[in-house]
Specification:
123 residues; three-stranded mixed sheet; alpha+beta; single chain; Zincin-like
């Protein structure tokens, strides 16, 4: 596990978002990307994770209506992407691993925003 403070971790998430290709970044309005320390244990159970098993970690979570499922009259609340700092830091042994994992997690959760399923994504 590597130690990175919250401010530095949030900067890594912002960098991952800033590095997105323009065609994806332009479609991210009404999406909040939030750094959380840990996922909620109830959410973990709901998703089939064991909240007490550290080998079974959740790095991020997309909550919302994917773009592919929205109609012309869609006017919902902002979608939300949670990036979980604790699980990512526990899984990584170096800063470069954290940078890579943050980028992959952000891309993965944005994939859900665009309507992709887990098996359709590179990460």
């Amino acid at each position: 596990m590597i130690l990175i403070d919250r401010q530095d971790f949030e900067a890594l998430v912002r960098e991952a978002l800033d590095d997105l290709p323009d065609e994806f970044a332009e479609r991210l309005d009404n999406v909040a990307v939030v750094v959380e320390e840990e996922p909620n244990p109830d959410v973990l159970r709901e998703l089939g994770f064991d909240p007490h098993e550290l080998d079974d970690e959740l790095f991020g979570l997309y909550t919302g209506t994917p773009l592919s499922d929205r109609g012309v009259e869609y006017s919902g609340l902002p979608d939300k992407i949670d990036i979980y700092m604790g699980p990512i830091l526990r899984a990584c042994g170096s800063r470069s691993e954290v940078v890579r994992e943050v980028k992959e997690t952000v891309i993965h959760e944005l994939g859900h925003h665009f309507g992709l399923e887990d098996e359709e994504m590179p990460y």
